[in-house]
Amino acid sequence: MSDLTAVPDLDDPATDPFDVARAAAEHIAQATGVARHDVALVLGSGWGGAADLLGETVAELPSTEVPGFSAAAVVGHVGTIRSIRIAGGDGAAPKHALVLGSRTHLYEGRGVRRVVHGVRTAAATGASTLVLTNGCGGLNPAWGPGTPVLISDHINLTATSPLEGATFVDLTDLYSARLREVARSVDPSLDEGVYVQFRGPHYETPAEVAMAGRLGGDLVGMSTTLEAIAARHAGLEVLGVSLVTNFGAGISDQPLSHTEVLEAGAAAGPRISALLAEVVRRV
Questions:
Q1: Could you tell me which residues are annotated as the binding site for phosphate?
Q2: Domain residue limits, the chain
Q3: pTM, two decimal places
Q4: Most CB contacts within 10 A, which of 7, 116, 229, 264?
Q5: Per residue in 183-229, pLDDT tens?
Q6: Counts of helices then strands in the chain (DSSP H, E)
């Protein structure tokens, strides 16, 4: 796209957010030289190393150069977008992965459209599969820090949605059972659970964590559900994977901190990165 000033303002209520996503996809295609991407990944806290194991990086660009994207606001997220060529097995043609190294969180106050813009852009680049990852608190005492858990369903406690107007979307099988089976073919020990999103940015209280458990939740965090809803609306097949970086408040007697999240992610990084890279190759 030659004239970025012509891109509609994503924050203008009169703007169709899908127009901005298409403009972003066009910019990515021109900047990377890759006309179409097959799979997209959003790499949350602890997951950044997976990009290096996927394949050959064709191009990398700052996310702020792409229409509609914001600068990374959280330590542990990388503010770049990468196009990675994944070699095809058994003579198959290579595929391309679009790796979003940062996400906009709802608590940043930039609006829901910004939160899900990366997902809509991924769909506009041609991707049919989306892998959403995050770092989260665990409610199951058996899942110590560093444990990856597949997301089987979610509970959205943000009191908002990325869908606007009378847009009715079935979320019954939002998190793909097929993709979870692919993940378990790589690591049969993977458990699965229900992810509960709070707005943040404060950590949940012990009472809120207990409430999440009574509602059927197994994991608590501050991302993912709105992106997953937008992905379903855009026609993407979704795989969600959480990295338990700490026990939820009240599960253990340790205070919560973002430093703990980063340390757990760093310690688990090699294992979860190799896991995710192999899952994406098989997908």
A1: 45, 77, 103-105, 135, 223
A2: 4-282
A3: 0.92
A4: 116
A5: 999 999 999 999 999 999 999 999 999 999 999 999 999 999 999 99
A6: 7, 9
